Amino acid sequence: MDILLYIAAGAAVGLVVGITGIGGGALMTPLLLLFGFPPQVAVGTDLMYAGLTKAGGAWSHHRQGHVRWELVRLLAAGSIPAALVTGLLLKYLFEHPDHYASLLRNALGIMLLLTAVVILFRKQILNLAHRENTRHWARYRPAATLLMGVFLGVFVTLSSVGAGAIGTAVLMLIYPALRSTGVVGTDIAHAVPLTLVGGLIHMYLGNVDFQLLGALLIGSLPAIHLGSHLSRRMPEHVLKPVLATILMTLGAKYAFF
Fold it and tell me: CA-CA distance, 160 to 225, in Å (whole number)?
């Protein structure tokens, strides 16, 4: 019966992701915590889930020419080493995964709050980026991209959240001239190696539940496809604020309590 519950959970999250485009980590990891999984298992399993589910999307965007690979490489130059260092610190600074569970929970809360802000103020972020699009700022873009890659590498490894919504916001802010398809394609292409590396790190730490992972994939893969077809008929302007409110409430709970 537990397997059926996890398949249904994967389907529910996949459907919402397909309709709204909001990253699955922001929904899946809190859901796994509500099911009673330890934070390290919820984060580790969700990272593997995210890497596998995003791979097909990255390939599709690549074939359509939506991926700016030079930006992917620049982000990954910061995020992948940061993820590896974060994993090493978890391994050698803590004697047992339970000892860093609260750290992962707090990191999850912070990233959920940031994700909610990005969802609610996406248009304002884009407008700000266009207003600040100056030649003076352009010279700092490579360094800013690298630094944001480091930020994502650390916090995605700790929380499994941020490679989607926050990664997209980063690209919109730093590269406002980039078309929306380029922002989405580039973000997904970067999210695949980052989440897979994060997932492999947690697998090495013993934090991935493969039975749970299989059930989530069985439920979510067809549901994401269905959700993408339903997205044109669903009231996205209503769904996104509701989801943002839920994420903000959960974020406050995990970040501060």
Answer: 22
Helix axes 39-63, 101-120, angle to 10 degrees: 40
Name the residue range of residue 230's domain: 2-256
Tokens of 129: 């980026």
* Other beta carbons less than 10 A from residue 195's beta carbon: 29
Report d(CA 46, CA 32) in Å as an integer: 9
What is the domain count for the chain?
1
pLDDT tens for residues 67-95? 999 999 999 999 999 999 999 999 999 99
Residues of the chain with pLDDT under 50: none
Is residue 53 within 8 A of residue 168, CB to CB? The reply is no
pTM of the model: 0.89
Closest CA to 57 of 189, 216, 198, 232: 189
Q: Are the beta carbons of 210 and 200 closer than 8 angstroms?
A: no
